[in-house]
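[audit] Reproducing an earlier prediction to check determinism. Same input, same settings, fresh worker. If the tokens differ from the archived copy the diff job will pick it up downstream; this log only records the rerun itself.
[audit] input (81 residues):
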Amino acid sequence: MTIIQITELFGWASIINLAYLLLATLIVTLMPDAIASIHSKVFKVEKSTLPPLYINFLSLYKVMTLVFIVSPYIALKIMGS
């Protein structure tokens, strides 16, 4: 693979991962009762323990996306110019 192809791969991966992060954040923010109800039934977890788990998931996903997807994309864009 060339650097241009890898840069394009990271670019699309960044778009997909950031779009998923935005969607997950909107769902957890706008529909917390519906999501908590579904997850408490599926995973047998109390509804009161779910909001911290959602925040933990979203924060970890954001950090991992920025470190492993967006940062390499920015570095490759800098290298290519």
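[audit] rerun output stored. Observation attached for the diff report: The chain has a mean pLDDT of 96.
[audit] end
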